[in-house]
Specification:
Strand order of the largest sheet: 4-3-7-6-5
Oligomer: single chain
CATH superfamily of the largest domain: GAF domain
CATH architecture of the largest domain: 2-Layer Sandwich
Order of helices and strands: HHHEEHEEHHHEEEHH
Number of domains: 2
Structural class: alpha+beta
Distance between the termini: 57 Å
Radius of gyration: 23 Å
C-alpha cells in the first residue's frame, strides 16, 4: 500500500497530467468528477501545483499548464533556433575537415549535445547527440567550464584513460589558455584514439554554445592548433549569424 506522501504525489501528478492533456481548461469541479477525489483534496493539490507554477488558474475558473511548461517550451524554441542557425555552419566545417561536428550547450553541470553532422570518413563517425559524457573529458566540456557556462563538478573527476584530467585544479589550470587562444582540446582523454577540439559561440558577449569537432587521434592529434583555428573561425561565423538575428529580434520587438 502506498504511503500518504506517495499517494499525494501520485494524485498531484494525475491532476497535472489531466490538465496538460485536456483539450480545454478543466475546472476543479470537472477534475473532481474525473478523478473521484474529494473536493477538498482536489482543491489542496491544485493549489500546491499553482504555488509551484506547474498549473495556473484562469479567469473563467479553468486550469491550464503553468509558467514552468511555458519556460521549458521557450527554452527548446531557443535551442531550435540555435540549431537551425548552426546547421549550415556545421555542414561547412564538416565539408572542410571531413570530421564529425557537434553543437553543445550547457545545462547545470553538464553538456547537452543538440546537433551533429557526421564525418565523411568511414572511420571516426558516431552519434554523440544525447550521449551523457563527463564534461572534463571532452573539448566541449572544457570549453564551457572555462567560460563559466556549466557548473564545476562535485567530488573527484573520473579518469577514463591515462590521459584524463584527474583533478579540478589541473582542469582549471587550462582555462586561461583556452580563453586566450579561443579553443579547447582533448587527446585520448575520453577514450584512447579520440581527439576533440571546440570553440565558443558568442552572442552579446556571452558564450551560448560550443562548436566541436572530433575524430581519430591519428588524423588530428598532430595538427590541433591548425584545426583549432579552423573551428574557431566557423564558430565566429555562427556567432555573427546569431548576433545579427538577435539584433533583428530586439529591433522588431522594440
Amino acid at each position: 500500500m502506498a504511503s500518504s506522501g506517495t499517494q499525494a504525489i501520485d494524485r498531484a501528478a494525475d491532476l497535472l497530467r489531466r490538465v496538460v492533456q485536456h483539450e480545454g481548461r478543466p475546472t476543479a469541479a470537472e477534475l473532481t468528477v474525473q478523478t473521484g477525489y474529494a473536493r477538498s483534496t482536489t482543491a489542496r493539490l491544485l493549489s500546491a501545483l499553482e504555488r509551484n507554477h506547474l498549473l495556473r488558474r484562469e479567469a473563467g475558473g479553468g486550469w491550464a499548464p503553468g509558467a514552468v511548461f511555458e519556460q521549458y517550451a521557450a527554452q527548446w524554441d531557443v535551442r531550435g533556433r540555435l540549431v537551425r542557425a548552426a546547421t549550415p555552419v556545421m555542414e561547412a566545417l564538416s565539408e572542410e575537415t571531413g570530421e564529425t561536428i557537434n553543437l553543445g550547450v550547457g545545462m547545470g553541470g553538464t553538456v547537452v549535445q543538440v546537433a551533429q553532422v557526421d564525418s565523411t570518413y568511414l572511420l571516426g563517425s558516431r552519434d554523440w547527440v544525447g550521449v551523457d559524457l563527463p564534461p572534463h573529458t571532452s573539448s566541449l566540456g572544457k570549453l564551457l567550464y572555462a567560460h563559466g557556462v556549466i557548473d564545476p563538478p562535485e567530488g573527484p573527476l573520473e579518469r577514463l584513460t591515462a590521459r584524463t584530467v584527474g583533478s579540478w585544479a589541473e582542469l582549471a589550470g587550462e582555462f586561461e589558455q583556452i580563453r586566450a587562444r579561443g579553443w579547447a582540446s582533448t587527446v585520448d582523454e575520453l577514450e584512447v584514439g579520440l581527439t576533440g577540439v571546440a570553440a565558443p559561440v558568442i552572442v552579446d558577449g556571452r558564450v551560448v554554445a560550443g562548436l566541436g569537432l572530433s575524430g581519430p587521434s591519428t588524423r588530428l592529434a598532430h595538427r590541433i592548433p591548425a584545426v583549432g583555428a579552423v573551428v574557431a573561425a566557423h564558430a565566429a561565423d555562427l556567432s555573427a549569424r546569431l548576433s545579427t538575428t538577435a539584433r533583428k529580434v530586439r529591433h522588431d520587438a522594440g
